């Protein structure tokens, strides 16, 4: 039998059942692994306590997340040799709850000609019989980007500690015929199975400035043929990295997720996410997938207007979703790089974190996605603080005491009764620019009001997450900002302010804000998850027990705090 046939047979062989005694052995192994890894240093004020990051060195894209053998598996781009990008391998950690993670040996590292210069991003697909397969980008000796496959060596191992690569690698490579630049052909998606029996996968690419998701098809998951046209493309968008394509349920009040291969049904719409290399933002389009023509038709595309939806309007990139079949939900993971200088990253010995895993679903309006931290993160909450209804006057600041200000989860809701003093916008302006012009220190009519986090004595340092309301063409616009302009006295940091408009009606809806605070990350969710903004900050004064937390209102109109609940967060066991 040819060696490629042996590989195919191993892909589609009989279902493996993981024995109970093997699972018991796994728990013993995990306990041993955990005991051998030292705890994080308390001398590093910026190292997170409950966000995912390795013990040291560089991390970027989340890769191949999946649920297998009773564990969540997360692979990620990792440099084992330092705190800057390079020497990239697929590191691997496992979890029972998406909160506490145990590191395993690296899953994929350069070992074949097709990946000898790097094992870049990719995705996992669960094949018939519950067998996982990974498609990933390798860098060959000519620095060409090509697509490879790896499968587990031992399907009965729920930890999937060892992976083997196909001798047929690379399975997909750029050719002169398809006019694809060999340096613009990467990041295969999770594959989906069509009703015609063919697997499909997308590869991110570009031709000149036209970004595109190239479509490939395969009957056996090894021999792939390029389709006649991309699934979708858009002029002027540049390279599409880390594409993601998945179905969402319409009119989904239960937040239910669906399998990636669900298509062609009336109650399903599709999402195409692309990470734009030119802007380093993750944009997404909602639309319909024509399963006959193999094209994606967005309701609003990149060419239709200048404002295309994003997962997160702060520092957030190279995200990846997976369907959690255990809880029937779709989970979103994303990379957050540092805002500190490279020199500071090298000094502290690490760079990069991942956001808290988020559940993601289609909003009942059908116009956008909604994101919310997974329920499991609430198991870290302790020492709750709850406020009764309070009116916070213009210019007032109220201290939130009783919680760990550098390691907290805060939920606060505001109610506006009077919009008489709302500011007017004469022309449309980019919300991020508006946040930088109208920061927390600029007094307004209705707002800014929200939270001051990582605040120092005398407010020499603070990060502000707030709302501010404007009137534009007879419509009330709710601006949500994360203002880092005074986050640190260290001016080597990137202190860009971020923001977006939140699709809420301030007259008829409460303005809710949830902020996860974790030493150097401020991860905020506005409008019950309709807008997300993540920031990295590195205060020099507001660290450890010197950091303070406030609710504030710097507008002229009073606002009502209808509820506030805050918790200190326990430290998760991460790597």
Automatic annotation (TrEMBL):
- Report the domain of life of the source organism: Eukaryota
Extent of the signal sequence:
1-22
Pfam families on file: Glyco_hydro_32C, Glyco_hydro_32N
**GO terms under cellular component:** membrane; vacuolar lumen
Residue intervals of the Glycosyl hydrolase family 32 C-terminal domain: 376-568
Topology in the lipid bilayer is annotated as: Single-pass type II membrane protein
The record's InterPro entries line, in alphabetical order, gives: ConA-like_dom_sf (IPR013320), Fructan_Metab_Enzymes (IPR050551), Glyco_hydro_32 (IPR001362), Glyco_hydro_32_AS (IPR018053), Glyco_hydro_32_C (IPR013189), Glyco_hydro_32_N (IPR013148), Glyco_hydro_beta-prop_sf (IPR023296)
Family designation? Belongs to the glycosyl hydrolase 32 family.
The protein's name is: Acid beta-fructofuranosidase
Organism, scientific name: Pisum sativum
């Amino acid at each position: 039998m040819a060696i490629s046939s042996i590989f195919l047979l191993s892909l589609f062989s009989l279902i493996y059942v993981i024995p109970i005694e093997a699972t018991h052995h796994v728990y013993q192994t995990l306990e041993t692994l955990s005991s051998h890894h030292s705890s994080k240093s308390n001398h590093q004020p910026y190292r997170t306590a409950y966000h995912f990051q390795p013990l040291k060195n560089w991390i970027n894209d989340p890769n191949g997340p999946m649920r297998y053998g009773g564990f969540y598996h997360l692979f990620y781009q990792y440099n084992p040799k330092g705190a800057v990008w390079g020497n990239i391998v697929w590191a691997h950690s496992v979890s029972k709850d998406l909160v506490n993670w145990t590191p395993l040996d690296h899953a994929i590292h350069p070992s074949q000609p097709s990946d000898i210069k790097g094992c870049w991003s990719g995705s996992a697909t669960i094949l018939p019989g519950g067998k996982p397969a990974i498609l990933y980008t390798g860098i060959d000796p000519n620095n060409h980007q090509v697509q490879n496959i790896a499968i587990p060596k031992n399907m009965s191992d729920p930890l999937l500690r060892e992976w083997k690569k196909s001798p047929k690698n690379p399975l997909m490579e750029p050719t002169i015929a398809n006019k694809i630049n060999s340096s613009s052909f990467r990041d295969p998606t999770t594959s989906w199975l069509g009703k015609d029996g063919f697997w499909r996968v997308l590869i991110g690419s570009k031709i000149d400035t036209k970004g595109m998701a190239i479509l490939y098809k395969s009957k056996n998951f090894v021999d792939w043929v390029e389709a006649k046209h991309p699934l979708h493309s858009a002029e002027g968008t540049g390279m599409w990295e880390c594409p993601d394509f998945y179905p969402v349920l319409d009119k989904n009040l239960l937040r239910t997720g669906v399998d990636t291969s669900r298509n062609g049904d009336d109650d399903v719409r599709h999402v195409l996410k692309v990470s734009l290399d030119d802007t380093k933002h993750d944009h997404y389009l909602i639309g319909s997938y024509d399963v006959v023509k193999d094209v994606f038709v967005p309701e609003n595309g990149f060419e239709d207007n200048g404002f295309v939806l994003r997962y997160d309007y702060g520092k957030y990139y190279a995200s990846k979703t997976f369907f959690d079949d255990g809880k029937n939900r779709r989970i979103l993971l994303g990379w957050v790089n540092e805002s500190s200088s490279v020199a500071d990253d090298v000094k502290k010995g690490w760079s990069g974190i991942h956001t808290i895993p988020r559940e993601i679903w289609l909003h009942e309006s059908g116009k956008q996605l909604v994101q919310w931290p997974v329920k499991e993160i609430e198991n870290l909450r302790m020492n709750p603080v709850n406020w009764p209804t309070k009116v916070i006057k213009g210019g007032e600041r109220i201290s939130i005491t009783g919680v760990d200000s550098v390691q907290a989860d805060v939920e606060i809701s505001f109610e506006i009764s009077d919009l008489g003093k709302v500011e007017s916008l004469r022309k449309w302006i980019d919300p991020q620019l508006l946040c930088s012009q109208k920061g927390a220190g600029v007094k307004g009519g209705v707002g800014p009001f929200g939270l001051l986090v990582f605040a120092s004595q005398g407010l020499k340092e603070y990060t502000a997450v707030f709302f501010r309301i404007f009137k534009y063409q007879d419509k009330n616009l709710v601006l949500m900002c994360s203002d880092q302009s005074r986050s640190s006295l260290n001016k080597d940091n990137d202190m860009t302010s971020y923001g977006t408009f939140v699709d809420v009606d301030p007259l008829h809806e409460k303005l809710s804000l949830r902020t996860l605070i974790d030493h150097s990350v401020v991860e905020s969710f506005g409008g019950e998850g309709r807008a997300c903004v993540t920031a990295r900050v590195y205060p020099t004064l507001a660290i450890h027990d010197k950091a303070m937390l406030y609710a504030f209102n710097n507008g002229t109109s009073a606002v009502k705090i209808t509820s506030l609940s805050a918790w200190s967060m326990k430290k998760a066991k991460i790597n």
